[in-house]
Amino acid sequence: MTSRHLLATALLAALLPLVACQDREAQAAAQAQAQAAAAEAQAEAGERDFEAAVAIENWALAKAQADVLLARYPDTAAAERVRAKFDDVAAKGDAVREDARTQALWSYNTANVEGGEQLSAAIYAKDTIDVDGTGAKRVQLIFRDHPSWGRSSYLVLQAGDFDCYPSCRVSVRVDDGEPRRMAANRPQTDEAIAMFIDDERALWRLLDGAKTVSIEFPVKAGGTRTAVFEVAGLDRGKLPKWG
Q1: pLDDT of residue 9 exceeding 70
Q2: Per the record's keyword annotation, is Coiled coil included, yes or no (predicted)?
Q3: What is the rounded CA–CA span in Å between residue 78 and residue 45?
Q4: What stretch of H or E contains 32?
Q5: Rounded to the nearest 5 degrees, what angle is found at the Cα of 93, between the Cα atoms of 87 and 94?
Q6: Positive or negative CA dihedral for 189, 191, 195, 198?
Q7: More confident residue, 19 or 193
Q8: What's the rounded Cα separation, in Å, for the pair 37 and 96?
Q9: Could you check whether the bond before residue 74 is cis, i.e. omega within 30 degrees of 0?
Q10: Distance from C-alpha of 173 to C-alpha of 74, rounded to nearest angstrom
């Protein structure tokens, strides 16, 4: 073999690894490009689902679609477009869930009584309260429309008693506003541990647009207690005569 042949063979031997390396790099680049295109296509499908949920204002579903897209395909152009809308959609979803939660805090009852139909709306205080040293228990606020007795608003305890014979005043605060003093009375009855707030219409009006209503009331065990009610979910239409 001549020196020229030896040189050509050596050059070919040197070039083969370089060509093979370039082929591998080209294959890797092509594979990465294909994977990126596939990811973008999947992300765009997720974006369409997200936009469809937004169009019907299903904020919970839209947020769920966005969560999946952003987790699986965070570096895609579709993810970037969805990310720009995410905070607004999440806030609307949170608002919907909060509305549903506060609405569920209220219970409504219709009962046939002498003289017609009795309607009521009731809600428990946010936290349980110890009113007599026997442990924390639930406090309830009720609005009632009775065909014979008219409209009433009152608190109900499960234990202990109110210090409101024959009458007293309670402090009512709406959200972070100034407290308002309102007349109340504990009727002479053993049917329930109840204390009526005399100006039921004023109390009802205070709930309109409120998030919370706090009522501070005197108890027989001494001092006062405060019950906080998350009232934002009240369906005022359930007691139509109250306005």
Answers
A1: no
A2: yes
A3: 9
A4: helix 3-55
A5: 90
A6: negative
A7: 193
A8: 36
A9: no
A10: 47
pTM above 0.70, yes or no: yes
* Dist CA 212 CA 172 (whole Å): 10
Amino acid at the residue 228: V
Q: If we measure between CA atoms, which residue out of 232, 208, 217 comes closest to residue 105?
A: 232
Question: What DSSP line would sit under 91-137, residue for residue?
Answer: HHHHHHHHHHHHHHTEEEEEEEETTEEEEEEEEE-SS-B-SSSS--B
Tens of pLDDT, residue by residue over 195-211, are 999 999 999 999 999 99
Strand order from edge to edge, sheet including 116-124: 106-113, 116-124, 139-146, 150-157, 193-197, 180-185, 168-174, 212-218, 224-230
What span, in angstroms and rounded, lies between the C-alpha atoms of 28 and 22?
10
User: Which value, in Å, is the radius of gyration of the alpha carbons in the chain?
Assistant: 34
Classify residue 59 by burial, with Cβ atoms within 10 Å: 0-12, 13-18, 19+: buried
- Rounded CA-CA distance 215/194 in Å is 14
The CA distance from 125 to 213, in Å, is: 9
Alpha-carbon distance 185 to 113, whole Å?
24
- 54-110, pLDDT tens digit by residue? 999 999 999 999 999 999 999 999 999 999 999 999 999 999 999 999 999 999 999
